[in-house]
TrEMBL record:
Membrane topology value: Multi-pass membrane protein
GO cellular component, one term: membrane
UniProt superkingdom: Bacteria
Descriptive protein name: DoxX family protein
InterPro entries on file: DoxX
Transmembrane stretches, start-end: 34-53, 73-92, 99-117, 137-154
Origin species: Actinophytocola xanthii
This protein's UniProt keywords: Membrane, Transmembrane, Transmembrane helix
Entry keyword Transmembrane: yes
Name of a matching Pfam family: DoxX
Annotated compartments: Membrane
């Protein structure tokens, strides 16, 4: 095979049973919309809790950015909540995803600042393998980041 020839596509996995075929078809139909919906609901919910100052992570978020003078103060957490609600609403409506998905990625990436700015809060005894509840709260954002990447990739392929 020369470098100008296309390689054959890998074989498509075949379902081994009717239930598996049905589940595969269902996942193909609703997987991406379900991912977008659940990500939207998560941002709407978490954002609303920040707006009303009912979030259990308000102090944690505030302390994470307290080293930035402009972000220090009581206004930041509710503002972040408004941003999250707007991003969640855009996801829910499927509008502006070309802009919204990179913004979500940047926002979620910013949550990892806590691992650097508050290691005493995110790790037990300074051991980076031993997370606290706050550390787990941050690390779970890897899943949300992956969801954003999947949605962005799917949007780009359309």
């Amino acid at each position: 095979m020369t470098t100008t020839q296309e390689r054959p596509a890998p074989p498509t996995p075949q379902a081994t049973s009717r239930p598996e075929a049905a589940l595969t078809a269902l996942a193909g139909r609703i997987g991406l919309p379900a991912l977008r919906l659940t990500l939207a609901l998560t941002f709407l919910w978490f954002g609303a809790l920040k707006i009303t100052n009912d979030t259990p992570v308000a102090d944690f978020v505030r302390d994470t950015v307290s080293w930035v003078p402009l972000l220090d103060g009581g206004w930041f957490v509710p503002f972040l909540g408004v941003v999250e609600v707007l991003l969640g609403a855009a996801l829910l409506l499927g509008r502006g995803l070309r802009i919204v998905l990179p913004l979500l990625f940047a926002h979620l990436g910013g949550t990892f600042l806590a691992l650097v700015t508050q290691p005493e809060v995110t790790f037990q005894g300074g051991n980076v393998l031993m997370l606290t509840t706050e550390g787990e709260f941050v690390i779970k954002n890897l899943i949300l980041l992956s969801a954003v990447l999947v949605l962005y990739g799917a949007r780009a392929r359309r």
